[in-house]
Specification:
Layout: H1 4-15, H2 18-32, H3 37-54, H4 64-74, E1 81-82, H5 84-93, E2 111-112, H6 113-128
Antiparallel strand pairs: 1-2
Length: 134
């Protein structure tokens, strides 16, 4: 059974999104593999601070072209849509856990490229925003 001190520590980590912050920073380190990791981390934290203060969303690991490629893999016959199940699996694979469960096209089971990309970008921004908006 966890002590009160352990519960308080867990609450603190959750409240301030500390684990998400470290996951995000670690992912960026492995992805970019900078020559000077400490300087890179400092720059990433500065970008997070600017994003928090300005409301401008910061960068994430996946570019627009990456999302186009993911959609293309899911739509090899170029129908211009994917199923809702494909949409959910793709967003989960990208690390998005709090996705829109009712995106445009869900009732027809046809999620368009535009909808997929919009939802993916918004989900990635939520995942990488390891701070509370001021």
């Amino acid at each position: 059974m966890a002590s009160q001190r352990e519960k308080d520590a867990a609450d603190y980590l959750k409240k301030h999104k500390i684990m998400e912050l470290f996951d995000n920073l670690t992912s960026k380190l492995f992805f970019y593999r900078p020559e000077n990791p400490r300087e890179f981390l400092i720059e990433q934290l500065k970008q997070q601070k600017i994003s928090q203060q300005s409301g401008v969303q910061g960068p994430n690991l996946f570019s627009s072209a990456d999302l186009d490629a993911v959609f293309g893999i899911l739509d090899p016959t170029n129908q211009k849509y994917i199923t809702f199940a494909q949409y959910k699996q793709a967003l989960t694979t990208l690390g998005i856990t709090d996705m829109n469960e009712c995106p445009e096209g869900v009732n027809e089971d046809r999620i368009s490229h535009e909808t997929f990309k919009t939802e993916a970008i918004e989900g990635l921004q939520r995942c990488s925003a390891t701070y509370k908006q001021l």
